[in-house]
Backbone:
């Protein structure tokens, strides 16, 4: 049997692309179809309950008066309203039963006589009837081919009946099937067309690859005669190119340029992590708000839905606002240059007390930099973020300590708390952007502390334990000329 590793890349690339794209496309298509199914089903369930509630508006009084005609009119009215674009026949049946399961009104009275027990066709119908008779709050029942809304009827806190309204899921299933056929049809076309295109491109690009590989081997042997030619274990063109590159890499690794390349790669990786973090942190609340808006558009007059979803939208906007404000504040402050007296730090004491509020948290303040000159905006933002972290870590009670002093050629700032400390597995991520141990946190506080400290050529030291809490110490040189000597110690 022929070894696939020895095949030409002109065949392996289209095969790999086809498999990858097909897997991704079909996975995404299946996820979209499932999402549509749950969304459409949820909408149908809401409509079933809404129609059942409309039939239950006058039901208590009618049941107490034995006004069966009024109950029947309520069922007919609810069924005639339709369900937002679906046909009337989508309402399979609706009924009003008393607490014993006897029919008080039915959409089809000829098959279900008044005063008689409801006729059930099979074991499943009997199970649904039992559930409906015993329910004490609105609920949804799902069966094969239908969704049923159940509304209990009460009078003076006593259950006197139940309303059942059943909607067909035939149109829902048809919509999902049509969507699935469309999605997978487009996916198949994309995979087929993409594989042909990649095959054509790969064949064209790989023509000179063999010649290039041979030339690189010759150059490698000429430039580095002490190196033995690498043994090529595979048969494709990339393997030959890799062997030549490995021989040259043995010489290039001695060059000091590698250090600068690694530094540049590290900066790009950090930038990529920040960009990915921003996209992730902003996309999550955006997705939730879009779902809320979609529901609100479909039910603009439903006060309960408004009360439920408007706070969620506000919460998402506030989170995005806090992330953007944190990033903008750090960017503006990192380049700020406004030296002033260190007494400006005392303004943060009132801010910290306001953050504490009425909670039993003791704040100990010790600013000993009375005559020193500091970059007020940067240092204030560093200290403020550390104070907020400590206050939030206390979970409502404890003590927070702030100290500042001159420590040789450095200005020293310390914020400590007697909280629970930070677990071992979380410590190495504390200064990463968008890493937070609190669900409502943005993960920017300590990252901003690190960035601003770096901009002034300082360093951050953090010690933590369950018994002693957490202590963060910041050292900033009074004459910072090197801004790349920053470190943090955990």
Residues:
């Amino acid at each position: 049997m022929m070894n696939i590793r020895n095949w030409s890349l002109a065949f392996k690339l289209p095969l790999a692309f086809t498999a990858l794209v097909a897997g991704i496309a079909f996975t995404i298509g299946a996820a979209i179809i499932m999402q549509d199914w749950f969304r459409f089903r949820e909408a149908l369930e809401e409509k079933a309950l809404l129609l059942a509630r409309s039939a239950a508006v006058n039901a208590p009084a009618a049941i107490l008066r034995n006004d069966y005609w009024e109950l029947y009119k309520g069922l007919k009215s609810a069924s005639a309203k339709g369900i937002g674009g679906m046909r009337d026949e989508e309402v399979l049946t609706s009924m009003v039963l008393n607490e014993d399961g006897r029919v008080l009104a039915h959409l089809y009275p000829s098959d279900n006589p008044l005063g008689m027990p409801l006729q059930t066709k099979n074991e499943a119908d009997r199970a649904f009837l039992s559930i409906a008779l015993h329910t004490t709050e609105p609920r949804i029942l799902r069966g094969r081919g239908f969704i049923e809304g159940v509304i209990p009827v009460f009078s003076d806190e006593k259950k006197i009946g139940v309303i059942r309204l059943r909607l067909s899921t035939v149109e829902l299933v048809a919509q999902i099937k049509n969507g699935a056929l469309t999605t997978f049809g487009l996916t198949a076309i994309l995979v087929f067309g993409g594989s042909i295109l990649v095959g054509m491109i790969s064949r064209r690009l790989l023509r000179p690859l063999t010649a290039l590989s041979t030339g690189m081997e010759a150059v490698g042997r000429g430039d580095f005669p002490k190196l033995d030619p690498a043994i090529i274990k595979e048969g494709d063109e990339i393997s030959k190119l890799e062997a030549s590159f490995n021989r040259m890499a043995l010489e290039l690794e001695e060059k000091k340029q590698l250090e600068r390349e690694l530094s540049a790669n590290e900066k790009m990786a950090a930038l990529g992590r920040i960009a990915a973090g921003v996209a992730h942190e902003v996309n999550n609340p955006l997705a939730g708000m879009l779902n809320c808006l979609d529901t609100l558009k479909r039910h603009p007059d439903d006060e309960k839905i408004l009360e439920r979803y408007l706070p969620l939208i506000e919460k998402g906007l506030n989170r995005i606002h806090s992330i953007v404000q944190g990033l903008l504040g750090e960017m503006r402050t990192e380049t700020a240059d406004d030296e002033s007296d260190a007494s400006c730090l005392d303004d943060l004491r009132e801010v910290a007390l306001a953050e504490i509020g009425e909670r039993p948290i003791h704040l100990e303040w010790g600013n000993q930099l009375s005559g020193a000159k500091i970059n007020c905006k940067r240092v204030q933002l560093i200290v403020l973020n550390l104070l907020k972290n400590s206050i939030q870590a206390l979970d409502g009670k404890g003590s927070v300590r702030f100290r500042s002093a001159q420590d040789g050629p450095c200005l020293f700032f310390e914020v400590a708390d007697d909280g629970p400390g930070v677990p071992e597995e979380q410590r190495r991520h504390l200064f990463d952007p968008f890493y937070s141990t609190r669900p409502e946190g943005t993960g920017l506080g300590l990252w901003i502390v690190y960035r601003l400290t770096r901009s002034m050529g300082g360093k951050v030291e953090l010690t933590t334990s369950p018994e002693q809490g957490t202590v963060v110490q910041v050292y900033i040189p009074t004459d910072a000329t090197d801004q790349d000597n920053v470190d943090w110690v955990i």
Notes: The mean pLDDT is 75. DSSP finds 13 helices and 13 strands in the chain. The first strand starts at residue 91 and ends at 98.
